[in-house]
Design brief:
- This protein has 252 residues and is mainly α.
- The chain folds into two domains: 97 residues, no CATH class; 105 residues, Arc Repressor Mutant, subunit A (Orthogonal Bundle), CATH 1.10.10.
- It contains eight helices and three strands; from the N terminus they run αααααααβαββ.
- A three-stranded antiparallel sheet has the order 1-3-2.
- A hairpin with a 6-residue loop joins strand 2 and strand 3.
- The chain is rod-shaped and about 105 Å long.
Length: 252
C-alpha cells in the first residue's frame, strides 16, 4: 500500500497526571469542577490512538483510565452524604492528587531553572579558599592575608615618605629580577626569620619600594618565602619556604 504521507504525532507525557492536566487545560475548566465524563472520554481516546500507533502504554495510564471510569460511574449514581449532611464528591480524591502533582511539578521546574542558572555562574572563591588552592598543605602566609601584608607595606611607605627628599629627576632603573635576587639572598639560611620591614631597608624611592613588595609577593607565591605573625598587630616575619629555587623570568 502506498504511503499517504500522513503522520500522527502525539505529545509525550511524563505520566497519567501530566496527561490529565493537559486535557483539563485544553478544556479550560476549573480543576475543582472537572467534567469527568468529557475528560474520561478524551483520556480513553488518547490511549486508543496510542494503541493504533502500536505504542506501549505504561501500566499507570491504564490504572488512571480505570480510576476515571470508576469516578464516572459513581457520578451517575446517587451520591452518599457525609456526616455533615453534604454529598460526597467522587472527584475529591482525584482533585487532591492532581493539586499535589502540580505542586511537585512546579517545584521541579524551579529547581531545574536554578540548576541551569547556576551552571552559567562562576563563583569567586573567598580568600581562605584561594590560599588553600594556591598552597597545598602548608600556607606560607600562616593565617595572614594579603590585606595584612598591604597594611604592613603601607607603614613602610609612610615611613619612607617622611624621610624621602628627592632633588634629582634622573630615572632610577629598578628591575623585578634584581629584587627577587636580593630577597632570595636575604632569606636564604635565615631559619630564625627576617623582619618584614628589613626587606625594604635601603630602598631610596617609592618605585623601589613597590617593586620590592611585588618581588616579595612573587616569592611567596612560588613558596620560596613564607610569612608569619605571632600576635595581632605584631611584627610580621619572613622565613625560608619549601622551595629552594625560584623562577627569575617572571613579569607582573
Amino acid at each position: 500500500m502506498a504511503d499517504s504521507g500522513y503522520q500522527i504525532h502525539l505529545p509525550v507525557f511524563d505520566g497519567p497526571f501530566d496527561l490529565l492536566l493537559h486535557l483539563i487545560r485544553e478544556e479550560q475548566v476549573d480543576i475543582y469542577d472537572i467534567p469527568i465524563a468529557r475528560i474520561t472520554d478524551q483520556y480513553l481516546e488518547y490511549l486508543a490512538r496510542m494503541e493504533e500507533l502500536d505504542l506501549d502504554i505504561a501500566s499507570e495510564f491504564l490504572v488512571m483510565a480505570a480510576t476515571l471510569l470508576t469516578i464516572k460511574a459513581r457520578m451517575l449514581l446517587p451520591r452518599p452524604q457525609t456526616e455533615e449532611g453534604e454529598e460526597e464528591d467522587a472527584r475529591a480524591e482525584l482533585v487532591h492528587d492532581l493539586l499535589e502533582y502540580m505542586r511537585f511539578k512546579e517545584a521541579a521546574a524551579q529547581m531545574s531553572q536554578l540548576r541551569e542558572t547556576s551552571s552559567r555562574l562562576i563563583r569567586r572563591p573567598n580568600e581562605q579558599e584561594l590560599y588553600v588552592n594556591l598552597f597545598s598543605e602548608e600556607n606560607p602566609l600562616s593565617g595572614k592575608t594579603l590585606s595584612d601584608l598591604q597594611a604592613a607595606f603601607d607603614k613602610v611607605l609612610e615611613k619612607a615618605a617622611k624621610k624621602e627628599t628627592v632633588f634629582s629627576i634622573q630615572r632610577e632603573q629598578v628591575t623585578l629580577r634584581d629584587k627577587l635576587d636580593q630577597l632570595f639572598s636575604l632569606i636564604t639560611g635565615r631559619e630564625q626569620g627576617v623582619r618584614f620591614s628589613d626587606a625594604f631597608t635601603g630602598c631610596v624611592s617609592r618605585m623601589e619600594l613597590v617593586v620590592t613588595f611585588l618581588a616579595l609577593l612573587e616569592l611567596i607565591r612560588q613558596r620560596v618565602i613564607r610569612v608569619s605573625q605571632d600576635n595581632q598587630f605584631g611584627e610580621i616575619y619572613m622565613f625560608p619556604g619549601e622551595s629552594k629555587d625560584y623562577d627569575r623570568d617572571v613579569t607582573i
